[in-house]
Amino acid sequence: MSVLVIGGDRIQNIKDKLRESGFDIIEHVSGRKKSDKKVKIPYKTDLVLVLTDYVGHRVVELIKEESKKCDKKVVFSKRCWSCMEEPVKRYVEEQLKK
Fold first, then answer.
1. What domain of life does the native source organism fall in (predicted)?
2. Position 34 pLDDT exceeds 70
3. Sign of the C-alpha dihedral, residues 69, 9, 56, 92?
4. Taking the chain, what is the end-to-end CA distance rounded to the nearest angstrom?
5. Which helix (H) or strand (E) holds 27?
């Protein structure tokens, strides 16, 4: 499975936890650069994880619009594993049932 993480600067611990959860492809966009305001969700992405305390409102709006166009699951969370662990595990379980 693949995940696109948007937000945060140093997310190595989160990447490690995502790998443990079953994601083998992990892409990261900081959400702070000017070019990040034109984020496109790659076709191969299964899940989009937005770290809300590290991105601007415009980036969040763009991700919502983009995810609706390409029908991708988006999880919004603070940048701590305890906040995102449950939604990520729930997503992985749903995928394993398919």
1. Bacteria
2. no
3. positive
4. 13
5. strand 25-29
Whether the predicted model's global pTM rises above the 0.85 cut? yes
| Structural domain for 27, as ranges | 2-97
CB 43 within 8 A of CB 88: no
Residue 98 carries which DSSP code? -
62 vs 18, 37, 38, 39, CA distance in Å? 24, 7, 8, 7
Report whether 25 contacts 1 (CB < 8 A).
yes
What's the pLDDT tens digit per position in 38-73?
A: 778 888 999 999 998 878 788 888 888 888 888 889
Question: How many structural domains compose the chain?
Answer: 1
